[in-house]
Structure prediction request, 446 residues.
Amino acid sequence: MGDLHTPLQCKTKAEMIYSTLREAIVSGDLKPGERIVLRKVASELGVSAIPVREAVKILEAEGLIEVSAHSEVLVSKLSEKDFRQLSDIRVILEGHATFLATKNTNIKFLKDLENQINKMQTSIEKQDFRQYSKLNILFHQTIYENCDNDHLKKMISDLTARTDRARALFAYSPQRNTKSIADHNAIIRAIANGEAETAEKLMCQHQSEGLAIFMENFKFDNQ
Amino acid sequence: MGDLHTPLQCKTKAEMIYSTLREAIVSGDLKPGERIVLRKVASELGVSAIPVREAVKILEAEGLIEVSAHSEVLVSKLSEKDFRQLSDIRVILEGHATFLATKNTNIKFLKDLENQINKMQTSIEKQDFRQYSKLNILFHQTIYENCDNDHLKKMISDLTARTDRARALFAYSPQRNTKSIADHNAIIRAIANGEAETAEKLMCQHQSEGLAIFMENFKFDNQ
DNA sequence: CCTTAATAATATATTATATATTTCGACATT
DNA sequence: AATGTCGAAATATATAATATATTATTAAGG
Prediction:
């Protein structure tokens, strides 16, 4: 297990441990199936065992950690089945968020989307796929952020945290990126035209396709 | 606060406290906004403070409890906005679960639905609205249970726990029940015919209508 | 080789205690 | 009278030391 670095100060120690562990899990620093020994984490982060256990409880509720009573505490493995089920939900919710965002559109929102898609075009031309990937995530986030439903945002964010652990290191092909750009343009057009149902459908299709390509190319090794 | 009764034995005390508190909150025994004093719960249930706090952390992650650091622990209030947002998501997910359940249909499933709708018809004729309400919940659960996505089931169940706190005591009108029966029949037909998109759409419409009627008649008193 | 008993490791739980934060009331200031 | 500050009380949060429960592992015995 790599070193855990304690981030910005939080309200309570339990929260600090929580975000530290969560970040480590989501980033892939703590690998699926890896064991978490509470007192080690405690001493490593300079706290007692209790706040660590509270943090673990939260992460368990979020599905990022699995605890069998009195036994091991493990970073959740993400089986292919889990990934498929979670991604399926995610696509639906992202589609709905796109629908709501379209209903909630405004000038600044559209401007932001245009800017981002231009940057993405540039990064493609520069063959900077890492940058493209970052911008892609940001593009989607920008859309979902514009939907007026805080709970939906949180759910998408939580689902993303769980599913992107598998996708983190997966690079799309250039062909995929070209198609992706075209999809994004179509989505923006639909949003700009206030065609909420269309935008939703396009987003679902776009994400489903990306998902299908990922699943064809990724090897799940557990369960 | 009413007496908390400790339910079936659980693997850990934290889990016991968790399900005890959750049941009390969902059932309305612990009211929204009501304060939860940890050590009182601890002594009341005959445990120390730590497992109570762990339970509280889980409930906080689920949105049923709100904690401000070093300050009060409260049963979450459900503002009208929260209710609307959560219900909106719930409708989408229930629709999708109906879609998946239709894709996953089988003889027993259809038989179960038929049986339940017959019982509901009977309870309507007997004017037993309490029974009808129970059967209604069961009917919907039966559908969602038949979708092959465990995470989706859990999400719907969690959303239901949060939103039904407000709906618990709300009785539908007889007119609504008649319409409801008709809706259910249409949904079953679509499921039986394997028309997944239709079943999804009908379920969403059905739930949205019920939601709209509820919102027209219910007074939210907070926020 | 399989089963069982002992052991180690660790999660879970308790108790007592200490610290931190918010809330609220008393008192003072303006 | 309104406001603001201080202090006390209540309670959440955290620690430490310790005890118990459970699982996994090892060792012993059939």
Remarks:
- Chain A has a mean pLDDT of 89.
- DSSP finds nine helices and two strands in chain A.
